[in-house]
Amino acid sequence: MKLLKFKIPACIILAFLGSSDPGIQAIQKPDGPDQSVKIGLLISDSRSLAAKQGAEMAIKKANEIGGFKGKPFRLIVRTMEGPWGSGSKEAVNMIFDEKVVALLGSHNGRNAHLAEQVAAKTRKVFLSAWSGDPTLSQAFVPWYFSCVPNDNQQADALMQEIYHKRKITRITVISDNSYDSKLALESFVKKTKRAGNEAPKQIFYDNINQDFNGIIDQINKAEIEGIILFGQPSGSLRLIQQLQQRKINLLIFGSFALLDEDEISEQDLDYFKNIILIYSDKSAVSKYPAFSEEFTNTYGRKPGPVAAYSFDGMNLLIDAIKNSGTDREKIQNYLSGIHYAGVTGSIQFDEKGNRMATPDLKKIKNGMPGAVDK
């Protein structure tokens, strides 16, 4: 599968100055000279609350202990919704108008490419906290970092569990036609073939029509042992519900994107019982419970992976600023060598900005991720 590369000329990127969405700002502009240290957050749309809340919580905690040399950190939030290219415009607005010292992104891979191009042209750090698109690091942009495991790393973890630990050979991958889903599927299929395993059967569906009975009939005829879901949360949830309605029990695997808490409610998680998902690395056990409790007390709902990665991503930027100052090159250099213990586990980056280490897997039990059976 040949993937499209998204490029916007530098002259267009640098010309994107002007209006932004005033309703999504986390903090109002203060009267008088602004002495705050601003960090930008790019989210998909105004409904993307989890990333905003995770970043807000990190900012609040940093300000409670003095901010940066007595100056408060300030979160500037913009959405990437609208016509194609809106994300670039908002990234440029934050850099040139708001004077943010770094950018955090929680959105899909297509928009992450736009933000990465802005980072490359303006030499500002862009830290991705959601997209698993492995092609982001292939541009070799030194200003790009990602605190989530990319699709190749997720594929390695799934392959280890499916082919080596469980000895499953009859597996089917089910995906919608969205950009991120296709990338995840492509990574898994490529990794599978390179490892000498039989290529899995692939089934695609349209998110508009979520009647999965035809797909379920195909699964039954193929007598498969398990399925991997790379679709968006709503479609994956509907498929799981229909499998349960037809009393079909299969091993089900998927990426952490299935647990997007802006799309999946706590009640919906009941349907995910015993599903095995990429979650975080094993060292996340110690810090996550306290984060989850504080987040729940603050926002009235449990956090999912969107909030957790956003919280870690913002804390990485805060830590870099507190230890290296606001100079863009010093922030970039600090992040390149960082060893950070976050709520999603230990975080450090390779030479391309990828988060290092193979992620862990969790099985959903009572609506919560727990250990996978040995």
Largest sheet at a glance?
7 strands, mixed
Low-confidence stretches: 1-31
Distance between the termini: 35 Å
Gyration radius over CA: 21 Å
Question: Structural class, from secondary structure content?
Answer: alpha/beta
Q: Tell me, briefly, the overall form.
A: globular
In brief, what are we looking at here?
The chain is α/β, with parallel strands linked by helices. It has helices at residues 10-15, 49-64, 86-96, 109-122, 151-165, 179-194, 213-222, 233-245, 288-299, 305-324, 328-336, and strands at 37-43, 73-79, 103-106, 126-128, 144-146, 171-176, 201-205, 226-229, 251-254, 276-278, 340-342, 345-347, 361-365, 368-370.
Describe this entry's structure for a reader.
This protein has eleven helices and 14 strands. It has 374 residues and is α/β, with parallel strands linked by helices. Helix 3 runs parallel beside helix 4. The N terminus is likely disordered.
